[in-house]
Design goal:
Number of helices: 2
Strand content: 25-35%
Helix content: 10-25%
Number of strands: 13
Structural class: alpha+beta
Order of helices and strands: HEEEEEEEEEEEEEH
Radius of gyration: 29 Å
Largest sheet: 6 strands, mixed
Shape: elongated
Length: 280
């Protein structure tokens, strides 16, 4: 009887501890089962890049952006990143013909957060030198995991808009102005509960600023000098609440319940021996 009671109590405690895990696992499954909308023409990947922070082109994660420019130009893009993500920025530069280039070229990508603080790359080839006969050069930068909250003095990546700058350094006069093409893609790895912290920002960190032309009531542009700064339309996705911390919390609850039952059985002992009568 005692063994039966212990087993029933263990099963009850394990079910209570695992309930949040089962409920949390069911919610993402239901969300993933809904059909996703097809990308419209407005959501197509951009085919140009900005020339400053204010005109940085918006790029969604998972989409490849392209741009044609001249060697020596500064190319800017911006993308959103949420807490728990580890973004990886990859850029491919298709160089001019080798016969038109004077010497080797060094290309570099830099990533800045919403406050325009340069973020260090955790790993990746952030700077590469292309030989005189090279047809292209590939760059990459993997940022640190975006934190939901940080101290004001720290330089940790925070949720919000991030800027990417691509440029060539140390160019000769003969190489300036030659046509080139660039490709950019940003992907993120979801780190999960291991990167969670006790705190969060009330709003994303200073969303990127873009410049748009003001239009009159009849839909025509008022003038080329009529520009207004607007907040970036891209926002990090903060709707999800599920993380693998629910799994580890449930497992810890089950182990704690089993440890408590085991400790209780040790301290209680085996009870009265069967050879001793109850009234003795």
């Amino acid at each position: 009887m005692r063994i039966r009671r212990v087993l029933s109590t263990t099963a009850l405690l394990a079910g209570i501890a695992a309930a949040p895990v089962l409920l949390g696992a069911a919610t993402p499954a239901l969300a993933d089962s809904s059909p996703s909308a097809s990308p419209s023409g407005d959501d197509a990947a951009p085919t140009e890049a900005g020339t400053s922070f204010r005109t940085a082109t918006e790029v969604e994660q998972g989409r490849q952006a392209t741009a044609g420019a001249s060697t020596g130009d500064y190319l800017y893009w911006q993308f959103p990143a949420d807490a728990g993500q580890r973004p990886t920025v990859k850029a491919t530069v298709k160089l001019p013909e080798a016969s038109r280039r004077g010497a080797s070229e060094t290309w570099q990508i830099d990533v800045y957060d919403g406050l325009r603080r340069r973020q260090a790359c955790q790993y990746g080839a952030q700077t590469r030198t292309a030989g005189a006969d090279a047809g292209s050069v590939e760059l990459s930068c993997t940022l640190r995991t975006v934190r939901a909250w940080s101290e004001t003095w720290a330089n940790d990546p925070l949720p919000g808009t991030y800027y990417v700058r691509l440029t060539a350094t140390g160019l000769g006069t003969a190489d300036l102005g030659l046509p080139m093409n660039a490709e950019l893609r940003v992907d993120s790895k979801d780190i999960g509960g291991s990167a969670a912290v006790d705190g969060s920002l009330s709003k994303p960190l200073v969303p990127g600023i873009a410049v748009t032309s003001e239009q009159s009531d009849d839909g025509s542009d008022e003038g080329s000098d009529s520009k207004t700064a607007t907040l970036s339309s891209l926002r990090p996705d903060t709707s999800g609440w599920w993380s693998d911390r629910w799994v580890w919390t449930g497992i810890g609850g089950v182990l704690a319940a089993l440890a408590g039952i085991w400790g209780y059985s040790l301290t209680r002992g085996r009870g009265r021996p069967s050879r001793i009568p109850p009234g003795a």
